[in-house]
Amino acid sequence: MAPERSTRRGDRRRGDPDAPHEAMLEEVARKGERRSRSRREGRHGLGYGLGMFGLVGWSVAVPTLIGIALGVWIDRSVDSPYVWTLMLMLVGLVVGCLNAWYWLRREGGWDDHDR
Fold first, then answer.
1. Is 5's pLDDT higher than 60?
2. What's the confidence (pLDDT) of residue 115?
3. pLDDT value of residue 14
4. Is the pLDDT of residue 72 over 90?
5. From residue 38, how far is each of 47, 84, 106, 110 by CA, in Å?
6. Model's pTM, two decimal places?
7. Residue 61 above 90 pLDDT?
8. Residue 47 and residue 75: Cα distance in Å, rounded?
9. pLDDT tens-digit series, residues 13-46
10. Which end of the chain is less packed: N or C, by CB atoms within 10 Å?
11. What is the 3-state secondary structure (H, E, C) of the chain?
């Protein structure tokens, strides 16, 4: 009686040296099709959501912190009746929010021609 061959994915078939190569090609094709279907249907995974969350956070935080640093430097360097730190913090916050809005529209696919 001949031994049974395993047909499970990842198992090597005896006598067929191309079996691992064929299994890898099938796996790549299946994952490619799943990715294409996901893109067509507009679904995004957890990594995409976390990436967008980080992108929005950093695009607001960095300009705000730059504005604060520049304002502190001006307040220490120049004797002025104005509080530059507060003003430049607000400017940085507005620039950061506009930057986040731009990235959300670009990455989210919400362009004007879609409306």
1. no
2. 46
3. 58
4. yes
5. 14, 48, 19, 18
6. 0.55
7. yes
8. 41
9. 555 667 788 888 888 888 888 878 777 766 667 7
10. N
11. CCCCCCCCCCCCCCCCCCHHHHHHHHHHHHHHHHHHHHHHHCCCCHHHHHHHHHHHHHHHHHHHHHHHHHHHHHHHHCCCCCCHHHHHHHHHHHHHHHHHHHHHHHHHCCCHHHC
> Of the candidates 65, 50, 66, which has an alpha carbon nearest to the alpha carbon of residue 107?
50
Q: Name which of 80, 98, 78 is nearest 90 in CA terms.
A: 98
Q: Is 93 exposed, middle or buried (0-12, 13-18, 19+ CB in 10 A)?
A: middle
Tokens representing 68 are 């604060």
